[in-house]
Amino acid sequence: MLNIVLFGPPGAGKGTQSEKLIEKYGLIHLSTGDLLRNEIAKQTPLGLEAKQLMDKGDLVGDSIVIGMIESKLDSNPDANGFIFDGFPRTQAQAIALDDLLQKKGTAISAMLALEVDNEELIKRLLLRGKESGRPDDQNESIIRNRVNEYNTKTLPLKNFYSEQSKFHSIDGIGSINQIFNDLVQRIIFVKAEIELTNLENDIEHLDLTINDFEVATEISEELKQDIEEVRKSEAKQKPQAKKVVEKIATKKVVKVNSVSKTKKSLPVKKIVSKKAVTKKTTKPAAKKQIVSQ
Ligand code: AMP
Question: What does the angle CA 222 – CA 260 – CA 215 come to, to the nearest 5 degrees?
Fold first, then answer.
């Protein structure tokens, strides 16, 4: 599963980029801002309570947004993955999200942060306010309060995800397509990390032939070195880090293709025997039920 936290201050372009990422990766979009605006439009008690805070540019209570996210996760059990947009916004939300995903046997794959400076944000939001009519985008002091809420309560989440080696910074100033391209490069890199973990797991737990073991080990070693190279360049904030990511992302596509090919040829025996077991134990009545669902 690919679970992305798309991070950034209000006006960084999270909504626009989410739409493009959803289209490309078939992910489910979970925007707490959209969910709250929906509650306001339906005039539910929750919506009315949230509106008072949103109109001032204050954050809504953690338990409200965590509850919303939980019910959305529960109602999409077969998703390929999720894009969290505008959530988490506090450390309590980030911890709750980790717990919710862990219960589902998954985790956040990466936080992708769109970085835009404050004055550019305020300009963008005032323009959006004129175009969309969103009340919290129309008044400069409310906007400044939202940016302030972000800087004090949400920005510390960079550390939360950095500590888990999941934080990735992306320049949020540029054309929509250029920023999207940077996000895609990052996701390729994140997928390489996930692939490496899976591969190392397979090497440890599958009963491989010597030949398959050697191929899988060689690929995982190379992938590991590439990933470390990117991490080191980034830690030193080398200007060429972005170029290195691009190079590795391109190399990685080739590698992951060959890994998946290798993997396909590895556990054939297991798949066959698993099928045989399923065949034996699945009763005809149960089968019928599955088909009609
Ligand atoms: P957004 O559309 O993400 O900019 O959110 C608009 C407003 O909804 C914010 O200014 C907050 O008042 C509220 N909101 C959205 N998401 C959250 C969240 N995760 N935690 C608390 N408040 C939120």
Answer: 45
pTM of the model: 0.80
Token pair for 263:
């993997």
Taking a C-beta distance cutoff of 8 angstroms, is the pair 97, 32 a contact?
Answer: no
Q: How far apart are CA 84 and CA 69, in angstroms?
A: 9
Give the H/E segment covering residue 29. strand 28-31
The single residue listed with the structure tokens 């008072």 is 52
Report CA(48)–ligand 1 centroid distance (Å).
Answer: 14
Ligand 1 midpoint to CA 39 (Å): 13
Q: Report how far residue 219's alpha carbon sits from residue 148's, in angstroms, rounded to the nearest whole number.
A: 46
Residue 78 is classified by DSSP as T
Residue 148: pLDDT above 60? yes
Q: How far is CA 231 from CA 59, 78, 83, 227, 237, in A?
A: 33, 32, 23, 6, 10
CA–CA dist 172, 179 (Å, integer): 6
